[in-house]
Amino acid sequence: MMNPTRSKQILITGAIVLLAGFLFTREIKGLVKPKAETAGVPAGGQLTSASSTINLTEVSTAAKNSINANIAAEITTLENAYKSASEDEKVNAAKVLAEKWDDVEQSVPSALYLEIIAEKQRTFASWLAAGGKFMKAFDTTQDSVISPVLLQKANAAYTNAVALDSTNLEAKTGLGITIVNGMGAPMSGIAMLLEVVKKDPKNLRANMSLGTFAIKSGQFDKAITRFKDIIATKPTPDAYFYLATAYENLGKNEEAVDAYLNSKKLAANPTLSAFIDKKVSELKNKK
């Protein structure tokens, strides 16, 4: 029977992981987000279906309200040009819009235009680009309504990419990550990521996904090994953050404090720093 203290620790870890999200492309600010912003994000294996559409016009309108007015006006002009373009010209017009939205860090509309391009071209490169952008949009969105739809679209794009080139590790990694995040049985995604790591032991994205899954499933020793290997290759604030989380759940508070402080140092982010300072204080005061 599980020790109540350990059970409480695992519950705390689960909250932290959901709070942090999967950080393969996310900026460090995604490490600490209010619960309201992540309430709709599915846990691994839970999302099996979602609405397959996002209204591009609504997304565009919302995105324009958050960017410079002059750039927004320029995008409106480009959108009008796209709408009036012939079928042969629409791909190039969509490419311009995808790049323009990406330039202002609006991943959702950028991904939707890349999807349009992929559906017209149906090439490996176009599906891979769409999958990557949808995954970035999923990682960074604060909208719990469209979050599962973005994951579904990323999964579909990567599925199409893998169908065209089953040997490509980037596509297999992306597909595996979408499955682990909630698109289907997580163990099939884990198996796919393990295949990637076998061929490319230093693959950061695959290893990060395997590490976070190990934490969520309570396999803290495995998580520690995974994140220490990642850090040996490329020290990142999120890898140190998850390493600290794993140490904390094993009661190794000194190691957890060191890892949290390394995460704070590398991130140099005020929000994360405040969170870690509080966490470190709690750990140091534990008996």
Global morphology = globular
The CATH topology of the largest domain is: Serine Threonine Protein Phosphatase 5, Tetratricopeptide repeat
Unreliable segments of 5+ consecutive residues: 7-30, 33-51
Average pLDDT: 85
* Global structural class: mainly alpha
The description of the largest β-sheet is: none
Second-tier CATH architecture of the largest domain: Alpha Horseshoe
Full CATH superfamily name of the largest domain = Tetratricopeptide repeat domain
CATH class of the largest domain: Mainly Alpha
What is Rg?
20 Å
Estimated helix fraction: over 70%
In whole angstroms, the N-to-C terminal distance is 24 Å
Could you spell the SSE succession in H and E letters? Answer: HHHHHHHHHHHHHHH
What is the number of beta strands?
0
Structural write-up:
The protein is mostly helical and about 290 residues long. The chain has two domains: about 1-40 and about 205-285, Serine Threonine Protein Phosphatase 5, Tetratricopeptide repeat (Alpha Horseshoe); about 50-200, Serine Threonine Protein Phosphatase 5, Tetratricopeptide repeat (Alpha Horseshoe), CATH 1.25.40.10. It is built from 15 helices and no strands. The protein has helices spanning about 5-20, 35-40, 55-65, 70-85, 85-105, 105-120, 125-140, 145-165, 170-180, 185-200, 205-215, 220-235, 235-250, 255-265, 270-285. Helix 1 (about 5-20) packs antiparallel against helix 13 (about 235-250), helix 9 (about 170-180) packs parallel to helix 11 (about 205-215) and helix 11 packs antiparallel against helix 12. The longest helix has 18 residues, at about 145-165.
